[in-house]
């Protein structure tokens, strides 16, 4: 394939996209699974990458102490990935050219396996996941990204249309991209294929890579949730979560869940997670890709969410910011907010929730140490009592119970949104 068309600019960095780094960070998925604070010092990562090595770069930046193996099917893809990582000064990556159906030649297991848009290169999804499962450590996690057969249905229609014109016979060229652009430009507005697939940015050279992917890439195919869940079961893998799971909440599609007819309420209650995700896609196919985490089945029960903890649980718990927030930039901004007695908008550093997430300046001062260290929750309670020694309503000294209540309420909210990790004693 013409790398000049598909290549992401060498200088482009995932640092410009904190949400991307958040989803690539091993701790994000690991915490969802175990509710334990993970040490990232010595994890091993396998990246099966099919294009330019950008995913390998993102994994390296999101997991700075990890040992990464980047595998691609062609020497050209490996060479481009090496060039990209070298440009950004990343040295903890080794590269290998290997067909994905020969992964058994890799004689080691990994903590984290990243698989993006390559599962369709296996004979079927179950075979692909079985192969990956054999390379996964017992506590390991696989991150899978595939095209959605439902959301990209009309893109596949477009590919079939251009295949009929003979444009998908070989690797896409700049001339073929120009032909697609010309033909789509000549279609009347209102033509269904144009209305549902063509975007304004495709009309400029900046849209070349998207045209190749959406109109000329004849090897990709889409998946549906039942197929993926069946494949996980066949591979003895357990579903953990969708990436950005809140965007897949079926109930949020309805104006008021309380107004649903009783038959629908009962049906939704008895649906499996796979069925609920499939129903979401049928109602609202807005996600062109299906991205999720899975791993070996775990015998231990999932830790209770902090909202259900007892007082004794809180007394022994410890807390950490998500690693994506443990940055000098956040530390400096928090210090300025404290000095100027201004609220802090956390979403400017990690926009993983819609709308602003604002923390008042006193709570910012309480949370400041979490940028550099993991602390017992009791330490934050002590901080709060020093920062707010009096109850503003009664002017009585802030009691320990009031301090615990204020800190627990804040931490439960931040944990549910994904900004902090909370871990109670085993």
From TrEMBL:
The keyword Secreted does not apply. It comes from the Bacteria. Residues 43-145 form the Methyltransferase domain. InterPro entries: Methyltranfer_dom (IPR025714), SAM-dependent_MTases_sf (IPR029063). Keywords: Methyltransferase, Transferase. GO terms for molecular function: methyltransferase activity. GO terms for biological process: methylation. CDD domains: AdoMet_MTases. This is Methyltransferase domain-containing protein.
């Amino acid at each position: 394939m013409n790398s000049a068309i598909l290549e992401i600019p060498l200088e482009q960095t995932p640092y410009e996209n904190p949400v991307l780094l958040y989803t690539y960070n091993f701790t994000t998925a690991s915490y969802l699974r175990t509710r334990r604070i993970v040490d990232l010092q010595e994890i091993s990562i396998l990246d099966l990458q099919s294009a330019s090595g950008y995913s390998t770069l993102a994994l390296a930046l999101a997991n700075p102490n990890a040992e990464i193996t980047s595998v691609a099917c062609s020497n050209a893809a490996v060479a481009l990935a090496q060039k990209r990582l070298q440009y950004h000064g990343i040295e903890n990556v080794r590269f290998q050219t290997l067909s994905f159906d020969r992964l058994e030649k890799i004689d080691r297991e990994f903590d984290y396996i990243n698989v993006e848009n390559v599962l369709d290169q296996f004979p079927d999804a179950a075979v692909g996941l079985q192969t990956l499962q054999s390379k996964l450590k017992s506590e390991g996690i696989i991150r899978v990204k595939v095209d959605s057969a439902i959301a990209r249905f009309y893109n596949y229609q477009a590919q079939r249309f251009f295949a009929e014109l003979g444009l998908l016979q070989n690797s896409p060229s700049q001339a073929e991209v120009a032909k697609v652009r010309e033909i789509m430009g000549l279609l009347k507005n209102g033509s269904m294929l144009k209305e549902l697939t063509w975007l304004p940015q495709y009309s400029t050279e900046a849209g070349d890579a998207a045209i190749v992917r959406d109109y000329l890439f004849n090897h990709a195919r889409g998946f549906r949730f039942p197929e993926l869940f069946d494949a996980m079961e066949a591979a003895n893998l357990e579903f953990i979560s969708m990436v950005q799971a809140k965007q897949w909440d079926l109930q949020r599609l309805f104006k008021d869940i309380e107004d649903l007819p009783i038959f629908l309420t009962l049906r939704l209650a008895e649906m499996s997670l796979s069925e609920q995700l499939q129903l979401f896609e049928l109602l609202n196919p807005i996600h062109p890709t299906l991205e999720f985490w899975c791993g070996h089945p775990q015998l231990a029960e999932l830790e209770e969410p902090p909202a259900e903890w007892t007082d004794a649980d809180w007394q022994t718990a410890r807390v950490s910011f998500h690693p994506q927030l443990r940055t000098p930039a956040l530390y400096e901004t928090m210090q300025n907010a404290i000095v100027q007695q201004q609220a802090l908008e956390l979403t400017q550093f990690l926009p993983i929730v819609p709308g602003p997430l604002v923390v008042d300046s006193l709570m910012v001062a309480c949370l400041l140490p979490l940028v550099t260290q993991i602390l017992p929750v009791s330490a934050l309670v002590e901080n709060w009592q020093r920062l707010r020694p009096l109850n503003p309503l009664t002017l009585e000294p802030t009691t320990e119970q009031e301090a615990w209540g204020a800190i627990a309420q804040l931490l439960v909210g931040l944990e549910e949104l994904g900004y902090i990790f909370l871990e109670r004693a085993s």
